Amino acid sequence: MPQMNLAEALIDGLIWSLRKDPKATIIGRGMAGHGPEHHAEDRLKAEFAARIVDPPTSEAAVAQLGVGAAMTGMRPFVHYGTAVFAYEAWNQFINEAANVHYMSNGQIKAPVTFHLFHGIRGGGGPQHSGSPYAMYANNPGLEIVMPSGPRDAKGLIRAAMASDNPTIVVQHALLLGLTEDVPEEDYMIPLGKAEVKRQGKDVSVIACSRSVVDALEAAKELAKEGIDVEVVDIRSIAPLDVDTIVASVRKTGRMVAADETYEICGVASELIATVSIHAWSALKAAPVRVARPMTPVPFSPPLEKAITPGVSKIADACRKACGR
Amino acid sequence: MTGATREVQLAQFERMLRMRRFEEMVIRLAQKHEYIGRQHLHIGHEATGSAVALAMQPSDKIHTTHRNHGYVIATGADPGRAFAEILGRRDGLNGGKGGSWHLCDASTGMQSTSAMVGGSIALATGAAYGLKLQGAKSISFAHFGDGTLDEGVCYEALNLASVFELPVLFVCENNSKAGQRPSSMLAAAKLRDIPQALQIENMIVDGADADAARVMFAQAAERVRTTGKPVFVECTLERWPGSHQVTAAFPTGVTDLALAFEQERISGKHAEWIKSYDPILRATRVFVESGTATRDELAALDARVTKLMEDASAFAEASPFPEPAAAFTGVFA
Predict the structure, then answer these.
(1) What are the beta bridge partners of residue B170?
(2) Which residues of A fall within a CB distance of 8 Å from B123?
(3) What percent of chain B has pLDDT over 70?
(4) The domain containing residue A8 runs over which residues?
(5) Res. B269: pLDDT tops 60
């Protein structure tokens, strides 16, 4: 099985999407980011130059270019680069794309995929570090996927492109270089299926995106202290795989919710609410939340580090949940 | 005048009557029923809407604003199901989930109504992109008012349509009126300076003149089809006095075709609108004076259309409300 970094894997997922579906089409540039992995995009351009269009910097109308085309039967993949750019297309995501199917009573579908690089990334500052998927999740009608590694990124992009719904794929900007074995052939990972990335018996860390990577690192550290951590990657916040999350917490009896969206109305809070409703009796201790505190993201490295959820904060949260 | 022209003129007039009688029935339903949301009526814009609908081919697409009833009816949606939707009933075009603000009918190419100012123009640009990618000969239509030109996304969409050469016909209903709060506030000396600056071919037409609008939209649509590029048509329109009604009312009365010839009977605050502006009465006069149709023929047509709307309205009122469980279905495809 070949090794791919996440940028290569997502491009591979796109290539398979275009090969398999003549209606698939791409709007955007810099699909593999602008970092050292950006060359991954070359393969895509070489095979499908005619099906990629580089639009003007018009985030709102570009969203509608994708949505309107999707409503005629196309399957556009619209890439935004830094996630916050898509704030310019808020109405188009939330009020148009998300509502099309429901308000037409199923007459019209909008199978568009939006692709964003989110997260605290080192020097992004207040305006380039946004993780908007909790805000998107606060609206019905959108499927929202947050892959934590290359294998998932490829399979989830394929599933997003095959979905009949508007789907937002949110990649952490710092994970683009992450490398693992990725199947060469075409495959899809169904949307709404969480995956237990590490089995453990003492505490469940329910996480997504970069926090999964951090949780796996924290688990190694905690193993030395005799704490056996289970790591569940929700992979998508909508749909949310409640069964897998609840089963894990029922097994361990302890929960840490780790995610980079904000504490208030964020993904971690939603996960804790979900577990509280569905597995209250299984909890041996209060759930612990690791999330972005309610402050803009500062530029200076030590300040940025202070507000970033990460390995040590997740490890501390696990110790706390376990009464250590 | 050729027989073919007469036929198409009468076909247009029938659509105009359907649009008018439909909306008059909306006012009655709004007066009669406790809840109906809020109606944004297209009365006075029938010449434009019918001309646009006649320029559409079966596989073309259209996106409209919330002043949409006219387009929904002109493009061929079932009026009974449209009334049912406005009343929130089970048999509504959208199953009661959209209401007046979101009427659509996939079978007629009526893709969506966006109730967000600026929504339709960019979606229609996307539809044109989708049609172009599919190699279709079809084109898309964007219906919007001059107020849309206050919105930033409008400039993005016009620019995109121009630089990507997308087959979209921009239908701008300009009813901004001095003396009232204008529906747009534009620094451009004239509205068409805006598409002109973006290299979009543009035209202007009296949107209340049925013949002129029909000929203009036939030409403009043909132009979009043959060049594959966007065209912008500004339709100058006068605002109907009931345009912004909160309480359902007939400020210009129920349309009476006979008033086209019996002007001495017209009175009241809005007499001038009825006398010299109402595009339905204007077309009625033109038809009779040019010998295209007799008063009796037009009255008979009107009676048929009126009956059609009465039956459609009765169908809608008899339709039950959806079961509450339906609120939770269809969020995802």
Answers:
(1) B142, B232
(2) 64, 67-68, 71, 96
(3) 98
(4) 3-181
(5) yes
